[in-house]
Amino acid sequence: MADLDQLRKLLLEKERSRLEAIEDQLGDRERRTAELSEILPDSIDRLKQDQRLQNSLDQPLTRGIQTIISRNPKAFAGMFYPVLGPAIRRAVAEALKGLLENINRTMEYGFSIRSWRWRIESWRTGVPFNQIVLKHTLAYSVDEVFLIQRHSGHLIARVAREPTAVLDKDAMAALLTAIQHFIQESFDYDDDHPVRSIEVSEQTLWIIPGVEAVLVAVIQGTVGREARQLLQEQLELLHLQHEQALQDIDLSRSRQQEIEHTLRNCLLRKELAEASKNSLKTMLIRLAVLVVILLGVVGWLAWRWWSLDSIRDQLTAGLDQQPGWIVLDDSLGRNQVQIRALRDPYAISTAELLAQHNIDSRYVNFEVQAYQSLDPALTLQRLSDAIGVEQQYLQLQAPDSLDPGLTESTLLTVSRPVKRSAWLDLISLSRTFGIQIDNAPNLDIGYLMRILAVPDEVQLYWRGDVLVVEGKVDPDWRDRLPGRLVEFGIDAIVDDLSASTYEHRVSLFRQRWGDYLLGFSSDDSLTWEGETSLRSFINEASLIRLESPSGRIPYKVILSGLTDGEFDAQVNISLRMARAQFIRQQLLESGFAQDGVEIEPVITHLEENNIRAVRITLESTDSGSDES
Amino acid sequence: MTELIRKVCLLGSFAVGKTSLCQRFVNNVFEHDYKSTVGVNIVTKQLSVNAQKIKLVIWDMAGELANPDGLKSYLMGCQGCVLVADGTRAETLSTVDELHSHLQLQNPDIKTVCLINKADLESHWETPPEWLMKRRELGWIVQRSSALTGSGVEAGFAELAVKMLGHK
Q: Topology of domain B4-165, per CATH?
């Protein structure tokens, strides 16, 4: 047995020693751990392409992380803080940008007719209004997409909607990367602030960075944020499917084709479908609107023409009825009725004519020339103004009643005495109008001297409207002379030069008019005698004024109204005042000074009844010589 | 055969002739007017190296980017660099040295070629022969070039392409 052990020892001593060493090694946990830590990295490196290792580690790692988080969440929060902060900021910034775009677009389309149509659509479909706006307004096309290695600038793949003539896609990819680098270096931006877009002419280049690769989309038109989201998703998908390939610089053709296939999903396009679909409808609506507008314009023009034509008819008919108007021509202008006519200055004016017919003066243009009408009414008015005699005292009588105009046989009758100059004017005008004056007096001095039985030693002659009497005259004859002249229709001032001095004439004036009654008839107008007397009083006062050094008569005229007992006292007081006022007005109009004529207070004369008259009394204004 | 694409950066001090070398290599022209490059100028050139088509995407960097801090992002994904010095300005050689050291630190896999430009200005030459010898001893590919005459330009880029393809 001992020999056998000895033999075994001799034969297996070496293996035994090694076995014991191995047992020691396996039994020494610390040593085994140290050895494992040496070989573990190489083992993982060798197996990292092996999916089995990932599967094996998946569940224990996940459970382990969950356990650690539940035990010590603060530590994990601290670890993720530097990553989560920028990520959250970026997400919030993206959301705000999208919101701002929506607001801008909503504001832009907020108050148009189209917007109201979209609001109805929003209300009908329940889709928010801003989304409806986006749906109708966005039209874009992603024409070309580059996938570029993020750091090196190598072009991984490129797809385009149409074959485009990009001169050198590799140079372009490198250049886009260089631009990114240059801007980040120049402005000291880190990778969290990449260049997001570049605008060139009408194209926009969107640059969407991924971990390994950057996606660059060349876009035409207006594109919303949701398109960026879609592109981002495609880029993430590419990273998921081809993470390793995105880092390689020498891609196999097949792998490149796979990437291009995915990349084609990025060639997004959105058209304004409504525009093409509704083009015919839109055209018809526009046509209809145009027709309506045209009809409106034609209708308005027709109405305008009809209105102007009505105005023309109204005016021409009205003018035919108006004395002193002769229409030569009438026509319709662009916006006015054109009337060419002759008008007598005494005929109705254009303004009065338009007012009579309620016509706006903007619609009528008168081209008027003056002429002298032979219409009797206008002629009377003209004669009245020319000779200063009221129309009521003039009368034209046409023997042929069928002819309302003036003829050679038309007779003019003057029914009150007028001055010599007025008679002379009338005679002249009657020759102009070709009419006859029925009762024209003979103003010839010889005739007057004979008819008035003027004594031989007395001379008469006209000085203007003044009949001058020169020579020794019987005072009674002289006093009757104005009345005789009035009987002939002549309203004349008699200047009696026989009263040689001014003082004498003043004395005669006072003697005659110092207490005089001007009679009133029952219709409360002056009687014939009263009127004649008033005229004489005015004429004589005028002569004295002419000679007076002060230009005034040396008396103040006091007027007192008188009444009969027909009405009660109150009415009579009013009547007296009215009569006195009437006379005063006549005197003032004939040249008396305001302070030269006074009205006696009525109440003091109530006792002098039973006569319809105005009493004239004269009060001397020359102090110390008041004889009244 | 699939065309390979390689990113090449052209580095060096101000006015050493980087853009002129680029123009000579890509378009075979030389412009006498000096225009300073702002940022990066990018051109491409296709070559065939041992029947392998290769497209060089050349990043012609502005001189002010020739400092290590400014280069970091531009050099990412770069497979080859042409380091350019002006043979008539000795101080530009030290920039090349600094750039080479920086490249080795950032990415030792980047292949480099050094072109000492303006070889046509022989009378103004300031590059010490020992500098050239020492760099060649260290395994650099250093060549004299002239953008004006075109000598050494295409050869330099071709050398770099060969190195990038790992044929040598």
A: Rossmann fold (3.40.50)
